[in-house]
Amino acid sequence: MVDQRVALLLVRPYKQSVEFAAAVQAHIGQDIAIVPSPILDIEPVGALPDCLGAFAMVFTSANAVTTFAAGNPDRRLRAFCVGATTARAATHAGFRAISADGDLTELLELLTASHMEGDGPYVYLRGQNVSSDLAELLQERGVPVQEAVIYRQVERPLTDKAREVLDSRRVIVPLFSHNSAQIFARQAGVLDPDRISLVCMSRAVAEPLHDCQQDQLVFANHPSRSGMIKAIADLISDI
């Protein structure tokens, strides 16, 4: 029998894909086909920074949290996080996490408001690829920050199963970052607009998707995991 279910193609690192799939299933309360095909692996790079004298940590991804936590037991500093998913990872790792509950702009405002004259610098830990330079934005406001690249994203090819569903099924692909959207677009090639929808966390994420038709692109109403899940659920309910 041919499987007629909608397929959710997940291209994030495997652990994040599994966690997100469980959250989607719990929210929508119906059976959909889950197809994990990570197109990025996370690899630590460089030495972890010395946080002595720092005011607080800053994380804009759960990958940065887990990379730091795996190599450094220090949890004395607070951890300012871009959103709820990163804050959950920081809390799980043992930090006192503070979430900006939004995007980089909201995190920038929170960091600026929280730092007083005479405080030590923020320590901002990130991957090699970022869509905006948070350290530069903080420096422009006179907020001291030490930046360190502690991981990189290594590209992996789409699996044969992923290509099979892209060629034959009704597919929803959530895209959380500009980098993952760029890699997916390059690997996937031309996508049938009648079968394939791309759910993007923001319009900045969708910038590399030049060859897609506008009605293929769906945007979260909030740049968060819950916003992505709602967008996916709304899309499935319309199918």
Structural commentary:
This protein has a six-stranded mixed β-sheet. It has a five-stranded parallel β-sheet with strand order 2-1-9-10-11, with helices on both faces. It starts with 6 loop residues before the first strand and ends with a helix. The protein is elongated, with a radius of gyration of 19 Å. The chain is of the alpha/beta class and 239 residues long. It has helices at 14-28, 62-71, 84-93, 104-114, 134-140, 160-168, 178-188, 225-238, and strands spanning 7-10, 33-36, 40-44, 56-59, 78-81, 96-99, 122-127, 145-155, 171-175, 196-200, 217-219. Helix 1 (14-28) crosses helix 8 (225-238). It has eight helices and eleven strands. The mean pLDDT is 93.
Topology overview:
Blueprint: E1 7-10, H1 14-28, E2 33-36, E3 40-44, E4 56-59, H2 62-71, E5 78-81, H3 84-93, E6 96-99, H4 104-114, E7 122-127, H5 134-140, E8 145-155, H6 160-168, E9 171-175, H7 178-188, E10 196-200, E11 217-219, H8 225-238
Parallel strand pairs: 1-2, 1-9, 4-5, 4-7, 5-6, 7-8, 9-10, 10-11
Antiparallel strand pairs: 3-8
Secondary structure category: alpha/beta
- Taking all Cα atoms into account, the compactness measure Rg is 19 Å
* Largest sheet data: 6 strands, mixed
- DSSP summary: helix tally: 8
Contiguous uncertain segments of 5+ residues: none
Percent helix: 25-40%
Strand content: 15-25%
Number of strands: 11
- In sequence order, what are the helices and strands, one letter per element? EHEEEHEHEHEHEHEHEEH
Shape: elongated
Strand order of the largest sheet: 3-8-7-4-5-6
The pLDDT mean sits at 93
